[in-house]
């Protein structure tokens, strides 16, 4: 038991989210372990993005609790959660589009520096921030593009940039909301490889529609439908699960 | 090279001006610099923070009223006590108004700040404690006495001019430091993408509130000296018209630099002075010229500077850091 607890980076217990009378997430429990990629799949409207927003703090929970490394973060606002070790990407690329690629990543590193809001001193003089920026850019394969305004990057590069920014915050857990959305084959390949490399040193939770990518990446898989978890486990087990076959993988007619 | 030469030349000109120009122009230059401080203060919120405020006149006027209210009828007020008091009052007003207004975004923020500004206007307009709609006099200009020795007497136009010039330079230095600091970068990051700034871990509300408060305090600094110069305060000083004028100065000068709004203030006030002397319809002419400037130079007249003098220095949003990347990357390899 103790062994499992230390292994788990993020644990969600009985999460619920209601918008008025509509329940987007009605009962979700899952855990994400350090060093693994946990994929969440499910038909449109299953509540996957809502789940990520609950975990990141972009939405407040209606009920349930979220534990990060044994610390209750259920009611922390998003910036405090980020400081506590939650990093995320958005379904729609969310970067500082008017700033250089480098500055985007540098800001991410700055947000997790010892004094992120220092009112004096040049931002470029913080050696530690500069080092972490350069490392994150390199890991994401963007070192050569550091001087380009983020707006001028290709769509795939912008997704890489978003992941580089998340990396520069040195998170415990990385939440990725459809990282492959709207991406061509070769671009997608690069991102899949990048995501695969993230699990060294991080817990990763990824919501994705591309099934090939999901089965390639996932160490564990959770299937959601109508705001609930209908199956969870190793990818091979989940693939065979009868409820999953009806709700999602097999019968497309009933899925909607 | 040129980026250092231009400020140096301007400073030399500013230092020489009172010795070559008649008193009228020394006072005129003082007034223009005071408005320049107001515009630069406003731009910390508008340009760096993306917070279009229409209540900065309230902070400007409030500090003026504080001076008028605490200054006696028979003795000159002390600069040492009244100035901090006036600036603190403006800072406090900005803190309270900011704490409420910053819960809204975009056009709602503009409307809420406008509403607070008008509340302050009517507070002074419709109550009698500070002269109501007639305003109040500042009978004496402040003096700086230390241990019985008079160091500065703002009643002397020359002294007033140099004090305002020193504060102008101080304001530029302070704002430049802020804009280049981690705080300033966090502020402009939140302007570019609030959601991303939050999810990286920046406390966006707090960053904006601090910036808005500093901005309001500096507007108060300008207002104190405006009141001291005119020897009179009236509710109009707090009205939206002054807020809008300051905003026009920011737009003329350019949003993305510290000194752009100062250039905008000088251009607008200089323009007014010239047009008033030439035509009865100066407001019409001024409006047309302002429209032409904003259309032709969407980034402000400040953007002409690099064309004329080569590249300039203080743009916060353009951190070209080729060398930093390369050297830091090199360090991490080696």
Describe the overall structure.
The complex is a heterodimer of chains A (256) and B (334). Chain A has 256 residues and is α/β, with parallel strands linked by helices. Chain A folds into two domains: 1-87 and 191-256, P-loop containing nucleotide triphosphate hydrolases (Rossmann fold), CATH 3.40.50.300; 92-170, no CATH class. In chain A, 39% of the residues lie in helices and 25% in strands. Chain A is globular. Chain A starts with a helix and ends with a helix. Residues 1-5 and 252-256 of chain A have low confidence and may be disordered. Chain B is mainly α and 334 residues long. Chain B starts with a helix and ends with a helix. In chain B, 47% of the residues are buried.
Mean pLDDT of chain A: 90
- Over the alpha carbons, how many angstroms does the gyration radius of chain B reach? 21 Å
SS summary, helix count of chain A: 11
Corresponding CATH superfamily of the largest domain in chain A = P-loop containing nucleotide triphosphate hydrolases
CATH class of chain B: Mainly Alpha
Tell me the domain tally of chain B: 1
Largest beta-sheet details of chain B: 2 strands, antiparallel
Give the overall average pLDDT of chain B.
88
Low-pLDDT stretches of chain A are 1-5, 252-256
User: What is the name of the CATH topology of the largest domain in chain A?
Assistant: Rossmann fold
Biggest interface and residues each? A-B, 50 and 35 residues
Q: Structural class of the helices, strands and pairings of chain A?
A: alpha/beta
Apparent shape of chain A: globular
CATH overall fold name of chain B = ABC transporter involved in vitamin B12 uptake, BtuC
Number of strands of chain B: 4
What class would the helix/strand composition of chain B place it in?
mainly alpha
Relevant terms:
heterodimer; A: 256 residues; alpha/beta; Rossmann fold; 4-stranded antiparallel beta sheet; 11 helices; globular; disordered C terminus; B: mainly alpha; ABC transporter involved in vitamin B12 uptake, BtuC; two-stranded antiparallel sheet; 14 helices
């Amino acid at each position: 038991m103790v062994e499992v607890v230390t292994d788990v980076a993020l644990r969600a217990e009985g999460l619920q989210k209601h918008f008025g009378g509509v329940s987007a997430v009605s009962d979700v429990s899952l855990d994400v372990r350090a060093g693994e990629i946990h994929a969440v799949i499910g038909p449109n409207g299953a509540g996957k993005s809502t789940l990520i927003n609950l975990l990141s703090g972009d939405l407040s929970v209606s009920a349930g609790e979220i534990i990060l490394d044994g610390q209750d973060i259920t009611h922390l606002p998003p910036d405090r959660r980020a400081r506590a070790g939650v990093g995320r990407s958005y379904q729609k690329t969310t970067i500082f589009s008017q700033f250089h690629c480098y500055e985007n990543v540098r800001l991410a590193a700055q947000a997790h520096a010892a004094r992120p809001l220092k009112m004096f001193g040049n931002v470029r003089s913080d050696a530690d921030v500069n080092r972490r920026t350069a490392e994150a850019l390199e890991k994401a394969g963007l070192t050569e593009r550091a001087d380009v305004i983020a707006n001028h990057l290709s769509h795939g590069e912008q997704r890489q940039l978003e992941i580089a920014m998340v990396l520069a915050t040195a998170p415990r857990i990385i939440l990725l909301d459809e990282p492959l959305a709207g991406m061509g084959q070769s671009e997608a390949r690069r991102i899949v490889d990048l995501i695969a490399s993230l699990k060294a040193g991080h817990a990763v939770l990824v919501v994705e529609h591309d099934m090939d990518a999901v089965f390639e990446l996932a160490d564990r898989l959770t299937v959601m439908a109508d705001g609930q978890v209908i199956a969870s486990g190793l990818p091979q087990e989940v693939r065979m699960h009868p409820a999953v076959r009806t709700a999602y993988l097999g019968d497309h007619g009933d899925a909607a | 090279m040129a980026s250092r030469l231009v400020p140096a030349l301007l400073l030399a000109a500013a230092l020489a001006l009172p010795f070559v120009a008649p008193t009228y122009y020394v006072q005129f230059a003082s007034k223009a610099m005071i408005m320049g401080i107001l515009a630069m203060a406003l731009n910390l919120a508008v340009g760096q923070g993306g917070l279009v405020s229409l209540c900065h006149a309230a902070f400007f006027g409030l500090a003026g009223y504080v001076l008028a209210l605490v200054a006696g009828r028979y003795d000159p007020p002390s600069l040492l006590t009244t100035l901090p008091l006036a600036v603190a009052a403006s800072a406090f007003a900005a803190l309270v108004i900011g704490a409420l207004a910053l819960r809204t975004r975009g056009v709602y923020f503009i409307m809420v700040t406008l509403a607070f500004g008008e509340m302050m206007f009517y507070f002074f307009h419709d109550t009698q404690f500070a002269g109501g709609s007639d305003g109040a006099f500042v009978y004496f200009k402040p003096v700086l006495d230390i241990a019985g020795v008079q160091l500065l007497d703002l009643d002397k136009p020359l002294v007033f001019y140099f004090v305002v010039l020193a504060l102008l330079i101080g304001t530029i230095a302070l704002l430049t430091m802020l804009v280049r600091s981690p705080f300033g970068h966090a502020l402009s990051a939140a302007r570019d993408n609030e959601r991303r700034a939050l999810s990286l871990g920046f406390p966006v509300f707090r960053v904006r509130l601090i910036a808005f408060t500093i901005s309001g305090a500096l507007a108060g600094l300008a207002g104190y000296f405006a009141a001291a110069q005119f020897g009179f305060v009236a509710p109009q000083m707090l009205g939206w018209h002054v807020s809008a004028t300051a905003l026009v100065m920011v737009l003329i000068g350019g949003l993305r630099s510290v000194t752009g709004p100062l250039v905008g203030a000088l251009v607008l006030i200089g323009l007014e002075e010239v047009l008033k002397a030439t035509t009865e319809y100066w407001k019409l002419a001024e409006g047309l010229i302002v429209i032409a400037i904003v259309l032709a130079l969407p980034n402000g007249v400040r953007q002409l500077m690099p064309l004329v003098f080569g590249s300039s220095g203080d743009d916060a949003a353009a951190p070209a850091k080729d060398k930093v990347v390369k050297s830091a990357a090199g360090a991490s390899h080696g």
